[in-house]
Specification:
homotetramer, 8-stranded parallel sheet
Chain lengths: ~400, ~400, ~400, ~400
């Protein structure tokens, strides 16, 4: 659970903003379990201003081919201190600090043929000749078969460890498998080699279902979708993605449904931008993410949180579901004459059953769930977690749901 | 749970054999939960002698285009009594009676243009012109859009209900979807129309994963594999099939891993034939079927059950797992240097956790499962269900497994 | 070059009509090279009335499982004379006689288990169990591996030879390759076994380009398209089909672009029906068919030939191109700003070069062809074959063409 | 017809070698029609030594982002003279001069952000962000939509024109279509803009058959195969490639079957290397290339030509076929019991018919070609072009052919 700068600032977030969001989180959200503060892509790019990348541009880099924060955007990094001071600040608030990286080695290091720490090999010698990212020109892939490749990645994670990084979101590496499989293994091993515990999060998606066991072994999170934004179609599709991935969720390995694009997003384009999701859609998203136990990363600017969004993100019983659910699965999905319903269920580790009812069709409607569909054969009372209302024991659950709306229950 | 004639007699089972197996089941197996006795394919074919089908041969049929038992093979059916007397006998033993049917209407009815009960339409008028089975020449598909199609299927199930049938295995209908989707719906509706409760089991497989919701709504069981025989490769493949289908298992809708080819099978070719599965492989099969909660149908001749096979089929704790498991799923699957391990887990509805450890590689090996992989964070004692041995509480479970072998645990 | 009953009468042509068309051809078209009179599909079906097939209906058949003309539609066949008298009549006019057959053996023969001439095998024993036509219920495929299969096909062609058949259009056999490849070889060998020379024409298309050498060896004609009707889209597509197949055209092996749907077609639905092709489109069709050297089969009712259509079909210089062209190929195909042009060229076996210019776009336009594109490096005079107009020698050819129109040239 | 440095020197040819081969060609081969001398890939790479490319290495480049010859390998280029002096020398011998280029703009130009002649745009601004070659790291693709892209390509061809280049082999552009289609059009237009006539040859293959019209319009040659080396399998495959492409051969547009790997090839690895093709295979290759009218480029070191190879390359009648053949096509291809035969035929523009008979199976055998298969209906005498032997007039041609051998005929 945390905050990530991408949805509101793209490639252009600054230290000032990160500090402000961290401070807000410490004061208002930490008590609900929110703790990671993550600086997303291109913190090493001095000229970045939006979500668009400048092609082939000059990047800030140390003498060992490692990218470092752009001092004009992260002043505390001046003098070779990197993200050390910023991480220290975040830690001082009782929070954790994360960064985004791109798979590979900077192209400018390769073309300048700069050194690799702890080896007499150079950037040119470890780069993979035909491995590039399809949408960003910063890096070449690293060829795991080359001498110096291992040392390069180890030098990277040692640097991040020295800064105090707790979370690394590595990009250009999940959707590309199995092509880049050996580079993922090299990178993951290098991370473990540095001794500091860091969460490894893989991006972008959709990850490959047939590679589930690989992700489980080498990463803690992996994206099951391309960038998720505030479009209903993407949320609708997420139901099928979650259905397919649910059995791969467990301790230390979490399919990742991407950030929550709520509140004030796309701030680099216009400070007035707000999510286009309706309130019902946002509740549907939170309920699905939590019963599926997806990692939760807030996409919106925290200092501009409106009351609805704040409530959405601080409902203790919904957030408990993200921690306490076990064996979540889609029970069924059916088109009724007028709309389409989905039922999810999960066990609560401390007892009881979670139930998510979703109306993902285009009309309001009434859905009935016999408890026998959950292999529960008596009568059950339930509490609705968004409203707090309780329903008296019965053999089935009947609920009216608006279009794109949901209800989340826990048996009493 | 039951017995089916296919694995030992193919298309050629006789009444005498069915009665003998039913009697054996009532005396020796019923107490463990075994109850269905199912007559498989072509009971209407007077000349059938093996698993091979005679092409275009004469079938026993009533005047309304409905197939009836061949009196030379099922003497009690003489005089239009159909399976009534045999079902009555099975019921008298406290057991249930099932039959196999092929989707469609007999080709001989179509070419003779015989009547359909309760309508002035004929067989020729309801047959679908280009719908045939790829491996059997008995039937044409029925075109749901034709007048008389509904009446034909209703007349079928009324006949089966009048006989006292409890279970209908319908063939040539699962793998062919979505092509034959509307015929499945027509058939399922006709079954419900007849008022007698009958289990509807769809065959052959592999059924289509993307049609899971359809099977759930219109059938109780559907095959997730082609005919399953005693080859290790098929059992190896079943692990992946079960992984994919596990979330679709639940009350009233069961993915079906096919019969258990154990004991004396292929009796129509040679009475000395026995399963080629090793004992370890048979335990692996039973453990997977039961933790996955697959329907259990014995394929071997019951009157020839050897001691090992009888024990295999009457282990109360393993069979309890088939009833009590919930939310079963593959936890992980990994190649170690020398072999390949799979871990399954499920909750027991009355408390506790089931764990299946499988060595599906080609060498013996030792597998370790930290309980944290199951989100169980303390120490746990377990009982191995095949041997009855208990293991003292610990934070992980370490087991030596022979090639193709398994262990099944329940936490204490 | 001939006439075929399909385009005007579907499955329902009668002897009277065939005789009338033959008589017309002998009197008015024979002198231009037209000579085959072909009775298309289901002449053995007494109840056929249109292009739609009656499913599973009774067919006229002899005691040896061979279909024979329905006497109510072909009265001269009465008394076991088959098509003998009709063929004799056609021959008496100096023309040749052809029939259509379906691959395989009648389903009614299989289900009645009738005999096969010259063997003690039966229809049931030679039928292939899972080989049917997708759009017609008359036949089962024949399994070449069965004893009696060869004898069945030989008995068929002996019957046709005894009737005096000169041309056999075999259906359900070209598009289905390689599935039915061995049945084609069996059938072709049986045809040659009967000693009478008959053209073997395969249908329906599109035939498979990668099987070109097979068709060349076992048939004289094969359809490169599904049924071709009077829709511009189909004619447009034919340019690409002809481009791909042109190198496979030669003596004794002709890719077949299907019938010419001109004049009075679909007469079984309405005697007022006429082709929907414009005059320009019909000329484009004739020009392409003739430069490509496709077999020419008139689809319209001959006795209703209007003056335009008659001229279209009797232009001696265009028809000469169908005989005299060699090495025809598409020279180029280009989209211009407003429309799309295609150039074909072929050598004339007796000297000179044929050129076809086509405007297959949606606007009129002017096309220029430098003779150097044909590897002709001087200046050339040409004659336009539809109009007879000559153009003085020049280094290129420039022509205005209406939408869907063409011009055909021969160098002087 | 010419010589290309790739097969013998890979990326490492030197001026001295080019001059020696040009001198040899002028003295010994020019009289047979050989005239182009082509410097293949990476003449701008000072460290190249073999067929392997150094990754990300420094390239010789002018201030306008244009690659120039490496002076250590091409001394006459010193002082900004480029290939001018070498081209002048080749022209002085009465021959023509060609170079190889890679599609795109040097990566080092992009990362150094160098200028583009005649515009205030820079290399960085015209590079396409995700377009690289799969096997060489020299270039980025150029994005035709960027300002400066057109000017960049025009500046390239103006430079080549100023040097006196007659032939440009552009690499990384044929197989990649349609992806790089717009870059091909941009490049081709830039070539025509420079006014000097240069042949444009596209590489590598296999080119896409469905893009034939595009190649015809924008290039003179395009490779129909990946790099062709001295392996029989590749030569065997070429028969099918030629069959498919034959109709697209004509004046100004030639499908290219790649170089002739004959004589002393792979000289950069070992001066003793010689082609692995047998003499029969080399004749088969020459016969196919010439009847198909493929461009002919010698791959072997000319100064080491052995007597067999020299004869192979200077057979006047075979070479005449490369110029005089028209409408070449595969007549048929058949497996006989023991081997496999292919027949090609073409018209000679000045009269007569060329015939190629090939045994591409693994045993010697006898092939018979009735002249009627070529639509030639009388008796014909022929001359075999390799041996000069004449065969008396007959209705068919019967020849014994060794494994992988051929015969080439011209009718008398």
């Amino acid at each position: 659970m945390g905050w990530n700068s991408w949805d509101c600032y793209g490639a252009s977030v600054t230290e000032e903003t990160v500090r402000a969001n961290a401070a807000y989180m410490a004061e208002h959200l930490k008590q609900y379990g929110w703790e990671y503060v993550v600086v997303d892509i291109q913190w090493y790019e001095p000229k970045a201003t939006t979500h668009e990348y400048n092609a082939f541009t000059e990047l800030c880099m140390d003498e060992y081919s490692r990218l470092i924060p752009a001092p004009n955007r992260f002043p505390s990094s001046e003098g070779g201190k990197g993200f050390g001071p910023l991480a220290e600040y975040v830690h001082s608030l009782g929070l954790k600090f994360g960064i985004h990286i791109m798979r590979g080695i900077p192209r400018q290091a390769v073309h300048r043929n700069t050194k690799i720490l702890g080896t007499d090999r150079t950037a040119r010698e470890v780069a993979k000749t035909n491995s590039i990212c399809a949408w960003n020109t910063d890096m070449y892939g690293v060829d795991p078969d080359r001498e110096g490749a291992k040392e390069y990645y180890e030098s990277l994670f040692e640097l991040y460890a020295s800064w105090g990084v707790d979370f690394v979101k590595c990009d250009d590496i999940a959707r590309e498998l199995p092509h880049e499989e050996s580079e993922l293994i090299l990178l993951s091993n290098a991370l473990h080699h540095c001794k500091r515990e860091m969460v490894l999060s893989l991006s972008p998606g959709p990850a490959l279902l047939e590679k589930a066991e690989l992700y489980k072994q080498y990463a803690q999170m992996w994206r099951i979708t391309d960038d998720f934004w505030d479009h209903w179609e993407s949320l609708y599709d997420m139901f099928e993605r979650c259905e397919k991935w649910c059995i791969h969720s467990g301790p230390g390995h979490w399919p990742d449904a991407d950030m929550l694009p709520v509140g004030a997003i796309r701030q680099d384009y216009d400070p007035d931008n707000r999510t286009k999701f309706t309130e019902d859609e946002q509740k549907t998203m939170m309920t699905l993410w939590c019963i599926f136990r997806a990692p939760l990363m807030i996409g919106g600017e925290l200092t501009k949180l409106d009351p609805f969004t704040k409530e959405l993100l601080t409902n203790s019983e919904i957030l408990a579901m993200d921690r306490e659910a076990r064996h979540a699965r889609q029970v069924w999905r059916r088109r009724s004459e007028d709309t389409e319903f989905v039922v999810w269920s999960a066990e609560r580790s401390t007892g009881g059953t979670y139930i998510g009812l979703f109306n993902i069709g285009e009309k309001e409607g009434t859905v009935t769930l016999p408890f026998t569909d959950l292999e529960m054969y008596g009568t059950y009372g339930v509490k609705e977690l968004w409203s707090g209302k309780e329903i008296a024991p019965a053999g089935e659950l009947t609920v009216d749901l608006p279009k794109h709306g949901c209800a989340a229950f826990l048996t009493l």
